[in-house]
Amino acid sequence: MAAEIENTYAEAFRSLFAEVLVTARDRTWLDHACANATGHASSTILCDCEAGVATYLNPAETPDGRPGAVLQFHVPRFRKDREEALYQSLLKRVSQNILTCPTAAAFSPMGEDIEAGRSIPLGRKIAYFGDGYEFEDRRHGRDVWVIPILAGEFMLDRDFGFRDGIMGGNLWFLGETADAALDAGTAAVAAVADCKGVIAPFPGGLAGSASKAGSNYKFLIASTFAEWCPTLKGKLGEKSLVPDGVAAIQEIIINGRDLESVTAATYAAIDAAKNTPGLRLIRAGNYGGRLGKSFIPLIPGETPWEE
C-alpha cells in the first residue's frame, strides 16, 4: 500500500550557482576530486555553500575525452554578498580540492553565461599558484590556464559562468520505523541522482535533522525542529506535530538549475519512495513564504509557482 502524500507544497528559495566540470584519468580519481570539492557543503546555515554532483559524464561528453562529472555550488540569492560568496567558495574548493587531486582538470560547462557577462575569473586567480610559470593556452578548443605541478600540469578554464538557480526543494518521509524512513529516503535519493540538473547536498543525500529557523538559544540561527522530533512526542504533548505511529523522519533537500528541474526531481523522488513498506506519509517543509518564494506542490498536476 502506497504512503499518503500530503496535499501541501515544498517551499524553496532562489540561489546563485555555478557548475564545474571535473575530469580525471579514471572514475577512482574523479570520485576523489568530487568528494573533496563538495565536502562540508550540506547546508548554508554553517557551510560556505551547498554542493554536490549533478551528473556524471562519459568520455565522449567531456572536453578532454576523459571521465567527468558536473558539480553544482549554490549560495542563497538573499545574501547581499552572493557573488563574492560564490566566488570564494569556488576559489577555495577548486584550488584546494581539484588542483591537488592527481590527474584532475576543471572546466566550465556554462559557456552561455560567460558570454552573457555572468562569470568568475577563477582561472587567473588559481593560476597564480604557478609562481610566474603559469601560462595561457588553447587546448581542447578552449582558452585555458595551465599550471606546472609536480605531477605534470593542471589545466582549468579561464572563466566560470554562474546563474540564478533554486535551493531548498524538500520532501519529508515519515516512517513507522527508522528503517522505513531511511529506506524511503534512500530510494528518493537514487531517483534524484538520475535527474538532470539537480543535487541532493546532504550526507548520502539525506538530512536526518531537519531544522527550524531560530532557537531558544539566542546565539543560534537554527535548531532542531522539536515539534517534529518523534522522541519528543510524549514530552511536547499537543504541541507535537508527529502523527501517531511515526517513529522516524528523513528529509531530502533538492537544489537545481531552475524550478522545473527541482520539480521534476521532486516527483521522481515521490514515485520512488511512496511504496516503501512501513512508510506512513510524504510531506514537505513550508513556512508561509517566510523562507522562499518558489513553491512546488506535492500533488502532480498542480503547477509550481513563484512570487
Number of domains: 2
Provide the structure class: alpha+beta
Largest sheet: 12 strands, mixed
Low-confidence stretches: none
The mean pLDDT is 96
CATH topology of the largest domain: Alpha-Beta Plaits
How would the global form be characterised? elongated
| Percent of residues in β-strands | 25-35%
Q: Supply Rg.
A: 21 Å
From the coordinates shown, what is the CATH architecture of the largest domain? Answer: 2-Layer Sandwich
Helix amount: 10-25%
The ordered H/E elements are EEHEEHEHEHEEEEHEEEHEHEEE
Give me the number of helical elements: 7
Total strand segments: 17
Enzyme class: transferase
Domain Formylmethanofuran: tetrahydromethanopterin formyltransferase Ftr C-terminal: 152-297
Domain Formylmethanofuran: tetrahydromethanopterin formyltransferase Ftr N-terminal: 3-149
Keywords: Acyltransferase, Hydrolase, Transferase
Description of the molecule:
The chain has helices at residues 27-37, 82-98, 111-115, 122-127, 178-193, 233-236, 259-273; strands at 4-5, 9-23, 50-57, 68-76, 105-107, 119-120, 135-139, 142-149, 152-157, 160-175, 198-199, 211-213, 222-224, 248-256, 279-283, 294-297, 305-306. The protein has 307 residues and is α+β, with helices and mostly antiparallel strands. It has two domains: 4-12 and 165-306, Alpha-Beta Plaits (2-Layer Sandwich), CATH 3.30.70.520; 14-163, Alpha-Beta Plaits. The longest helix is centred in the first third of the chain and has 17 residues, at 82-98. The protein starts with a strand and ends with a strand. The mean pLDDT is 96.
